[in-house]
Structures are given as structure tokens and as C-alpha cells.
């Protein structure tokens, strides 16, 4: 039910790379599809300079519904992904706990089916991020862009 195309509207994180890259970040598209064995294939397309970069991840399902795990070979990090809230048609709130040898961090993502979301949903995202211990400096509503928004099927 999470499958299809989403826009990343909000991103909150207490990781160092987020602090460094925050000012460069823009809205991106994410396409989610299900694999034969019930895992999630997640492809994000985002603007990087003049180009559109694609990143593909496989979220492996766990025994708990709405929970997935992902290991990044590139960064040597393990991600514990939890779908916190969604109504599938409008928005999804996803929390990720990331652990690697250098320590752990928290990331919260707000996905939307359209490029705009109601103030209530944005407020809920901010509120939830704060509950995860994130500060206002670490919470970002991503600037809209038309770059890389073409039908990234």
C-alpha cells in the first residue's frame, strides 16, 4: 500500500551530514515498489547540481508489520525503518534509526503524494520529530523544486 510515487516534503535528522548538507537540500521523488518476497524496493531521485541522481535501496521486512531494515554497504550503516503513520493516499511519516560504528542518529521523513501537504500534517511532522529528540534546527521542510520531478517511473 505504500507503493507508488511519493514526494519527500520534510526531513529531520541529527546526523552530521544533514547539518552540512541541509542548505542544499530540495524536495525529491521516491518510488516504492514491492518485491516478490514482500520487501520494499525504494528508488529516490533528487537534484544534485545540474543532474538528477538516483539512489536505490532495498528495505527488508521484519516480523513486525510496518518495520523494515536496510544496510548501506556504502556507509556501513544499519537502518531500522518504521512507518509511524500513513493513510496511503495522502501522506506517510517514517522514522529511521541509523547505527554505525561512529555512533547512531535519528531521521524522520515526511512523504506526500502531492507536492503540497496541509499545515496540520506539517505540524504533526514537526511535533513527532521533536518527540524523537530532534531540535528545530534539525527539522527541515524541503524547498519545492521542479527539477527531477519528471515522471520518475
UniProtKB/TrEMBL annotation:
One GO term under biological process is: mast cell degranulation
SUPFAM superfamilies attached here?
Lipocalins (SSF50814)
Lineage, top-rank taxon, reads: Eukaryota
Catalysed reactions listed for this entry? prostaglandin H2 = prostaglandin D2
Molecular function terms in GO for this entry? prostaglandin-D synthase activity; small molecule binding
Q: Where is the Lipocalin/cytosolic fatty-acid binding domain?
A: 3-146
Give the CC-aspect GO terms: extracellular space; Golgi apparatus; nuclear membrane; perinuclear region of cytoplasm; rough endoplasmic reticulum
Task: Identify which top EC class this enzyme belongs to.
Answer: isomerase
The Swiss-Prot or TrEMBL record describes its family as follows: Belongs to the calycin superfamily. Lipocalin family.
Q: How does it assemble?
A: Monomer.
Q: Identify this protein by name.
A: Prostaglandin-H2 D-isomerase
Q: Which gene encodes it?
A: Lipo
